[in-house]
Amino acid sequence: MQTRKIRAFPLVLLGREFWTPVLDLLRTRLVAASTLSQRDVDRLVITDDPAQAARHIRRVAQQRFGVRWGPKPKAMLGEKQVRPAERR
Length: 88
Description:
Elements: E1 11-14, H1 16-31, H2 38-42, E2 44-47, H3 50-65
Parallel strand pairs: 1-2
C-alpha cells in the first residue's frame, strides 16, 4: 500500500501485547526519521478480539470494496459441476 501497488485494505494485527512494542518502534524510529508516515501506522488496527478484527475487515470490505454477503454462487469462474462417482 505504501508504494501504491495495491489499494488500501484492512490491516489487522492480532495480539496487542506482541504488536504494541512494534508499533512504538515504528512511531519512534521510522516515523521520526520520515521513512514511514504516521498515516501508514494509523492504518493498522490492533486488537485481542478476533470478532472485532472480523467486524473491521467486513466493514471495510463492504464500504471500500463493495463486497456484498449472500449465498455462494454455484460457479464463480465458469467451472463445471463435478458429480461424485455413483456407487456400484
